[in-house]
Amino acid sequence: MGIIKPLPDLLISQIAAGEVVERPASVLKELLENSLDAGATKIDVQLEEGGVRLIRVADDGSGIAPDDLALALARHATSKIGSLDDLERVASYGFRGEALASIASVARVSITSRHASQAHAWRLRSDADAVEPAALAAGTVIEVADLYFNTPARRKFLKTEATEFAHCDEVLRRMALARPDVAFTLSHNASAKRRLAGAVPGDTAAHNFARRAREIIGDDFFPHARPLDASAGPLRLSGLAALPAYSRAGRDEQYFFVNGRFVRDKLLTHAARQAWADILHGQRHPAYVLFLELDPAGVDVNVHPAKTEVRFRDARGIHQFVFHALQRTLATPLSAAESAAPAAPAYAPPAFSYARQAGLAVGEPAARPYLEFARAAFEAAELGVPPAPTSMEADPGAAPLLGYAVAQIHGVYILAQNAAGLVLVDMHAAHERILYERLKTSLDAGPPATQALLVPLVLSASEAEMATAEEQAAALAELGFAVAPAGPRELAVRRLPALLAGGNAVELVRSLLRELAEHPASRVVETRRNELLATMACHGAVRAHRTLGLTEMNALLRQMEETERADQCNHGRPTWVQLSMADLDRMFMRGR
Ligand SMILES: Nc1ncnc2c1ncn2[C@@H]1O[C@H](COP(=O)(O)OP(=O)(O)O)[C@@H](O)[C@H]1O
Ligand SMILES: [Mg+2]
Predict the structure, then answer these.
(1) What is the 59 CA–ligand 2 centroid distance (Å)?
(2) Partner of 570 at 20 to 30 A CA spacing, among 168, 461, 529, 556?
(3) Residue 352 clears pLDDT 80, i.e. is over it
(4) Is the pTM of this model over 0.90?
């Protein structure tokens, strides 16, 4: 009387489809990969209604013999590998033999193909039993219609037509970057969206790639992009990396390919982020198109059915190599033409610009020292004598407690001069403290002021993060966040506490989800409020290595003066120290 029974084949494929066929873009990815594996040099893509109604991919590849057509749709049938040995050094995009079967289990599929051995083409439809003769000169046409027609639950996850199309376009962009030798066209609802020519005969591969990269990423990126080509033993990293003058608010221009396959890999992203860390403002993201090549045996691409995750055998070595190769590239001195661009300083007369630079309105009492200095400078100029160095010496009482910023040291500390002498401020710690206190005050006063995001911020999320966001939606709302699923593995942030609008919201939401997942009580905001606020403040605060202007530095000093306990950061470290003139004198053994 057993109760365990094998699942029907169709159901198995539909379950597998959950992993491979997330949305139209994932179908397109599988079809493009198949065309490339078949040696296509020209691929035409037609989409209707974001790909939900129709995805049609036509290629000029090898074609499929009629006897193989049924097998192409069968689960675990592939022409690409035949042994474990093959699997360990797989060079094709596909090898699992499950994409077409999965797609055919959730959509109406037809394959039309003409193999070189055949006098004409043959067609097989997923709902028919036999092949039929068809008209096609060469290659293969695959049509996927009515995606999820038989699984309405999945259809509910689909977004608007425009969003699904955008995802499809992104898939095509990635493929096109990896394969500048192949021509692509893309149309949506019968209007042409992209036309990318293949390789120009006689042009070098580097030229063809540069032209393709320009078409895909655009003219703004290009002037700042630095070519690189580094190798170490079996490792090679090549492509284009943008100098810090060109950076992005998001990670949308980060393309990493491993052996020609687009991947989203934490290790590689981290190595890249580190290479840019010292030169890029903390809330900006670098732009790059990078190709890592290595022995296929050194990387496992069979981690996830969609194959955008990989696992490296020598993770440490790869990280080091990528980091150093990028860092070297970015550190190469600029050409004369490039360095001439930022060379002209914007000179402004000292008069009122000092007060303005300090972020002060002319009428404010705190602006007085600046204005006095400005007037003194004017008078001195008229009298032909040099002005007094600062008005604070003349009237120490008018100067604010933390004084005025003079400089920023290595992007970490602010140096300020006050009445007593020298003030050193840890910029990040101080800002964190200010945000923390403000968040507390704002939450004490009621629901926090929030800011709706014009363009919701979308972040990819693990299943666990998705679940936490759902379970803790109320806690998140109490803290001022609106976070909702935007897809099976994507969260959209639509609203943030206004105080944190300038910070790195993605990191912020991730850390909050982590915190909330660890303490999943329903009253978590009440019981762990301050810890949560500290996390928020930490991610909302300016990062070290961010260049601040005098205005921003002085604004920070003024905020510190207004903030309770601003002298301690949330981790208990001091946020500023005072070195009095006497301290300085002692350092230099200077008798006073
Ligand atoms: N565009 C195409 N041109 C030629 N052969 C194709 C094409 N698409 C699919 N095939 C054949 O169908 C088989 C199954 O495809 P798929 O389900 O994606 O599995 P995989 O790519 O992992 O082998 C492939 O191994 C290949 O032989
Ligand atoms: Mg495939």
Answers:
(1) 14
(2) 461
(3) no
(4) no
